[in-house]
Amino acid sequence: MATKLKKRKPWVTFSFFAAAVSMLFVCISVFIGMRNNNTIVLDFKDKWEYKNAVGNVLYNCYSLALDQPLEKPGEDGTAVLYPSQTKYLDNEGDNIAYYIAAGNYLPVATNTDFRDSDAFLNEITNSGLYEHIILLKGDQILQETKITLLGGFAHEGKLSDSDYYRLFSPYTSRLIESGRADQISVYLAVKSGDRLSNSKSNLSAIYNAYSWWYSQMVVLVLLAGVAAASIIILLVTIIKHKSLSMANAVIVRLMGKLWFEVKLVLTGFALLGGIYFADCVFWADWDVVFLFIPCFWWCWFVLLDIIYNKKRFFTNNIVYSLIKFMRSLENKHDFLERMKRRFVVLIVTEFVMVVLSVILLFIGRIGWIFSLLWIALGIYLLLRYMKEYNRNMDEFGLIIDYVEQIKSGTVTEPLILPQEDDFAPLAANLSDIHSGISLAVEEQVRSEKMKVELITNVSHDLKTPLTSIINYVDLLSAEDLKPDFANDYVKILAQKANRLKNLVQDLFEVSKANSRTIDMNLEQLDIVALVEQTVAEMDERVDIAGVEVKTQFSSQQMFVVADGKKLHRVFENLLGNALKYSLAGTRVYITVHQKQGVAEVTFKNVASYEMTFTAEDIVERFQRGDASRTTEGSGLGLAIAKSFVELNGGTLSIELDGDLFKAIIRLPVSTNSPAPIPVDVEDPVHEKIYDEPSALPDAIEQNTQQDSLQTTC
């Protein structure tokens, strides 16, 4: 499921979905604002900025003509003009061509070389440079020709009724309406948009109007492209509805953690923001569109929350959470409930005191005195709580120490706390637990002692008649009995009597080892030599078993502190088991290595049967690898070996790997032992194969007290 979720990448899908919706929303909002502001026009000559620019030009033309001394023409027959009177017209440069005439005189002003109105009109009409031509006389628009993307059209009417007239000054307007301008003729021509220039330091109003319109058209085209891309992305994300549903599920889970009151307040602000945004869009104020996007998505998330969570949308509120919190303070343990309630009461009290202290600061001249009193009271309550908390922590520390004493078995007396303390019941329960454990341990010790005594007594009682049986069997073995098969019966009796003797002896030793009442004679000894000695002593059994024993030593000497007799018994038991249960024709490996200050002796062999037991079960008493019990043995060999190794301060572990049986003995290396003698460099693993008794080194041919160590597994 996690791989499938990663493959679908729901958050990537939702990110594209949110981006597409947001950008589409921005495009639509900007388009609506531009439409309401009459920004979207196919020709820049229909924009109010252009009409204002043309109106300003006409106003300056009339002002120029009305302000001239018409009875006093210049030397060349034209009116006398001052530079300041043509400044605004000069700002337009060659974007316009104008011709102003008054009465029967030559032109008052013109930016062309023509001194005749007919020649002027003929030139601007036939040149193809101008798309907007206006002919005025007094208050009349004789002709207005305009070429747009939809074609050309002509217009006639009164100047005072046109859009250009609103920029005329009241003084000029009164002169025109009074008839003073009836003798004035104004001819104006404006170039097409692609021929306009801004050569007058960005002072051409007509060029600025065209430039503004052009930039808005570019924005409109870009908005259309972004809107188209957003629609495509939106359709793709809708197709990926499963990934989108996964993202919605995560959003709903997060929204479900918020209180209903918080969502209600934020939703109210979001709706108010939406209303304000709608008003701003109507008035073409687009800056707030990016602030409205969070409001929109918040409402979207709330809608998803209502659809998916349903009733839980309303039930997860502050009141319900407060009730749930108060219930969480309830506890079946009285001291825990008291501690929780104290903390909550402290927090609420301190909050109320802080609020009251702030309020008192603004009440009268002595309000700060009461505020200080409240602050002092709050500090006192906080110190009182800290003192109580420290006392509880000290009591809890005593309980932890008492538990550690119980764990280590060093408890001398029960833990008693004052009855008014919160942890007094817990201390009493721990004391009762310790008393119960002590009684159980005493009972267990008494039971083990009785068991050891019983086994010792039984073993002792069995030894006397068993010794007599063995002695009489020996006497019978020395006689030549008739009939002949009676001698065979005696041999069988001798074998079974010896087996019973060994069983009694093993049972006696394992009981003493488990009760740790056995005497230990610890001394420093060479464990390598002891292994070699054990192998050499059991050479005859190796030949009978039909297996080959190989030893591998990392050094010629390795000293440990142990009881030699007990450790010899361990090696003898492990090797005896290996010989008894190994597959014929295989090898038994005995290795001795030192690892991090520990001597490790390993016995490995391949079993001749299927090992159905576990490593833990085989070291228990009376457990045998041969479940059918067709071979001799008491089932106590590994149990005795494990007990003896532990009495020597080591460990015995069993590892099973298919048919491979491995017994590993670990003993700490003696710190006072001499340095180990390294083996030959050319043969890093010291290996010996024992095929005959002569292989035993002379150094370890010692008196081993064979009779005291002899046993069977």
UniProtKB/TrEMBL annotation:
<keyword id="KW-0547">Nucleotide-binding</keyword>
<feature type="domain" description="Histidine kinase">
    <location>
        <begin position="457"/>
        <end position="671"/>
    </location>
</feature>
<keyword id="KW-0067">ATP-binding</keyword>
<dbReference type="InterPro" id="IPR036890">
    <property type="entry name" value="HATPase_C_sf"/>
</dbReference>
<dbReference type="InterPro" id="IPR003594">
    <property type="entry name" value="HATPase_dom"/>
</dbReference>
<keyword id="KW-0472">Membrane</keyword>
<feature type="transmembrane region" description="Helical">
    <location>
        <begin position="212"/>
        <end position="237"/>
    </location>
</feature>
<keyword id="KW-0597">Phosphoprotein</keyword>
<keyword id="KW-0808">Transferase</keyword>
<dbReference type="GO" id="GO:0005524">
    <property type="term" value="F:ATP binding"/>
</dbReference>
<keyword id="KW-1133">Transmembrane helix</keyword>
<keyword id="KW-0902">Two-component regulatory system</keyword>
<dbReference type="InterPro" id="IPR050398">
    <property type="entry name" value="HssS/ArlS-like"/>
</dbReference>
<dbReference type="GO" id="GO:0000155">
    <property type="term" value="F:phosphorelay sensor kinase activity"/>
</dbReference>
<dbReference type="InterPro" id="IPR036097">
    <property type="entry name" value="HisK_dim/P_sf"/>
</dbReference>
<dbReference type="Pfam" id="PF00512">
    <property type="entry name" value="HisKA"/>
</dbReference>
<dbReference type="InterPro" id="IPR003661">
    <property type="entry name" value="HisK_dim/P_dom"/>
</dbReference>
<dbReference type="InterPro" id="IPR005467">
    <property type="entry name" value="His_kinase_dom"/>
</dbReference>
<dbReference type="GO" id="GO:0005886">
    <property type="term" value="C:plasma membrane"/>
</dbReference>
<feature type="transmembrane region" description="Helical">
    <location>
        <begin position="289"/>
        <end position="308"/>
    </location>
</feature>
<protein>
    <recommendedName>
        <fullName>histidine kinase</fullName>
        <ecNumber>2.7.13.3</ecNumber>
    </recommendedName>
</protein>
<dbReference type="Pfam" id="PF02518">
    <property type="entry name" value="HATPase_c"/>
</dbReference>
<feature type="transmembrane region" description="Helical">
    <location>
        <begin position="258"/>
        <end position="277"/>
    </location>
</feature>
<feature type="transmembrane region" description="Helical">
    <location>
        <begin position="343"/>
        <end position="360"/>
    </location>
</feature>
<keyword id="KW-1003">Cell membrane</keyword>
<feature type="transmembrane region" description="Helical">
    <location>
        <begin position="366"/>
        <end position="383"/>
    </location>
</feature>
<feature type="transmembrane region" description="Helical">
    <location>
        <begin position="12"/>
        <end position="34"/>
    </location>
</feature>
<keyword id="KW-0418">Kinase</keyword>
<keyword id="KW-0812">Transmembrane</keyword>
